Amino acid sequence: MHVTPAVLARGVRVVLSGNVILRGIDLSVNDGEVVALLGANGSGKSTLVRALVGAVPIESGEVELLGKPLGGAVDWSRIGYVPQRVSAATGVPTTAGEVVTSGLLHGHRLRPPRHARRLVLDALELVGLTHHLDRPVRELSGGQQQRVLIARALVRDPALLVLDEPVAGVDLPSQEAFATTLGALTARGRTVLVVLHELGAIAPLVQRAVVLRHGAVVHDGAPPTPAREHGDPDHDHVHPHDPDEAFADTGVAGLRWEP
Ligand SMILES: Nc1ncnc2c1ncn2[C@@H]1O[C@H](COP(=O)(O)OP(=O)(O)OP(=O)(O)O)[C@@H](O)[C@H]1O
Predict the structure, then answer these.
(1) Can you give the three-state secondary structure of 129-140, one letter per residue?
(2) More exposed terminus of the chain, fewer Cβ within 10 Å: N or C?
């Protein structure tokens, strides 16, 4: 039986300011799969997810999302995207609930549906923030603001969720909350493509890892496992790593491939 992948990229090449950033990327994410996109700083992870959602132009190659070529034919209401390092806080005292509600407004829908409050509470529950519904987002921590943005992407119950470094620089409770969120999405059979610097707490939930290096895929398969002391549950993953370790060739901190 032919199954349409949720994300399909073939030979994606991206050139920005005259520099070749992506050198012909092939990537597929199947329905219900959780795939991590890993790689060193500057390897092209953000550029790839931005190209996949149409935020940067593709010089050559093809992208299909939910079975449709990138563009107007894609059902964007079924896709959630959380970009890297954006703040949910604005100058105005918008509450967490209002930010999440805005995720229900898209296309022709200018007013939230009648059951919006229930949907918003469900989305905030998925990220562990229901008790902050009425709090201005500017009063929340960076990690909590990132969770509000994830809830904003989740509120439409997207079939495909694309997240760019959702746990970079966020506090530990927010990292743990993200692992729980991801577990809930997996249980619901949602498809997730997540850019990460290291797998950390979500390693058990990731079915496949795609590693980029200098704008090309250098690994597509089993996720790397924590190496030596990194396998120790007490290890905190915050110290700098020896660049000579087995993973230096991929730039993925503190991890090594199973032999
Ligand atoms: N608009 C742009 N114009 C020119 N070069 C760019 C642009 N955006 C990104 N780049 C370059 O493309 C390369 C890949 O950047 P990208 O942000 O995709 O990497 P990344 O793997 O996501 O890195 P990080 O882990 O630091 O977020 C970098 O060398 C970056 O300087």
Answers:
(1) CHHHCCCEHHHC
(2) N
Both tokens of 162, joined, read 């694309």
H or E stretch including 60? strand 60-65
Ligand 1: which of 12, 13, 15, 16 to mutate, judged by most atoms within 8 Å of the beta carbon?
A: 16
Atom of ligand 1 at shortest distance to CA of 39?
A: 21
The two three-digit tokens of residue 217, written as one number: 């895929």
What is the CATH classification number for the domain harbouring 79?
A: 3.40.50.300
Q: Which one, of 185, 190, 167, 213, lies nearest residue 23 by Cα?
A: 213
pLDDT band at 227 (very low <50, low <70, confident <90, very high): low
CA of 121 to the centre of ligand 1 (A): 35
Distance from the alpha carbon of residue 46 to the mean position of ligand 1, in angstroms: 7
Which ligand 1 atom sits closest to the C-alpha of 215?
14
Report yes or no: 124 and 53 within 8 Å, Cβ to Cβ. Answer: no
For ligand 1, atom 29: residue with the closest CA: 42
Q: Whose CA is nearest to atom 31 of ligand 1?
A: 42
Residue 10 has pLDDT above 50, yes or no: yes
Tell me what the mean pLDDT of segment 43-57 comes to: 95
Q: How many domains is the chain partitioned into structurally?
A: 1
Query: Residue 2 falls within a domain, yes or no?
Result: no
Q: What is the pLDDT of residues 167-177, one digit of tens each?
A: 877 778 888 88
User: Which residues lie with the beta carbon below 6 Å from any ligand 1 atom?
Assistant: 16-17, 19, 21, 39, 41-47
Domain that holds residue 154: 7-256
